[in-house]
Amino acid sequence: MFLLVFGLSIQKSDAQPIRFKTSSVSFTDKNNDGTWNEWSDFVDANVLITLDAKKDLITVNSAEVQSFKISAYGEIEDTAEVNIVPFECVDNKFSKCKIFIITKKTENNRMQIYINYNEVKFVYNVYNEK
């Protein structure tokens, strides 16, 4: 977690890409009335996600590679329970979304990456690649 916050706080020209490996993924979508369905069960997912602040790019190397151009870096929220690093992005199909890298401190620093669109959300359980 410290490396993630430190990596994002240094100047972009000096930043090294941060790589995350996923272990599982879940999703939810909106009902016709605007409420969200329950999250799906997590399924195994062995995917590499790369955050490259120097290129303002987040890449999800799934079967279909997804690229997210970072249009804005949000303010980091850091509390005793959670650390949230937000990004406003545009994907490779020109759809806007928000991506959050969340560290749940009260859950043994469990990390997740959320990709939130208006109609669907994905969450990956991740860990730093070493």
Features:
130 residues, 1 helix, 10 strands
Describe the structure.
By secondary structure, the protein is mainly beta. Helices cover 6% and strands 53% of the residues. It has 1 helix and 10 strands. Strands 1-3-4-5-7-8-9-10 form an 8-stranded antiparallel barrel. A hairpin with a 4-residue loop joins strand 4 and strand 5 (66-73). It is globular, with a radius of gyration of 14 Å. It starts with a helix and ends with a strand. Mean pLDDT is 89; it is low at 1-13.
Side-by-side strand order of the widest sheet: 1-3-4-5-7-8-9-10
Structural class: mainly beta
| SS strand fraction | over 45%
Runs with pLDDT <50, length 5+? 1-13
Alpha-carbon Rg, integer? 14 Å
Separation of the first and last Cα atoms: 13 Å
The secondary-structure element order is HEEEEEEEEEE
Task: Report the average pLDDT across residues.
Answer: 89
Helix coverage percent of residues? Answer: under 10%
Question: What is the β-strand count?
Answer: 10
Shape: globular
For the biggest sheet, the summary is: 8 strands, antiparallel, barrel
Number of helices: 1
Question: What would you say about this model in short?
Answer:
The protein is mostly beta strands and 130 residues long. The protein is built from one helix and ten strands; from the N terminus they run H-E-E-E-E-E-E-E-E-E-E.
Topology:
Blueprint: H1 2-9, E1 18-29, E2 43-44, E3 48-52, E4 57-61, E5 66-73, E6 77-78, E7 82-91, E8 96-104, E9 110-116, E10 120-128
Antiparallel strand pairs: 1-2, 1-3, 1-10, 3-4, 4-5, 5-7, 6-7, 7-8, 8-9, 9-10
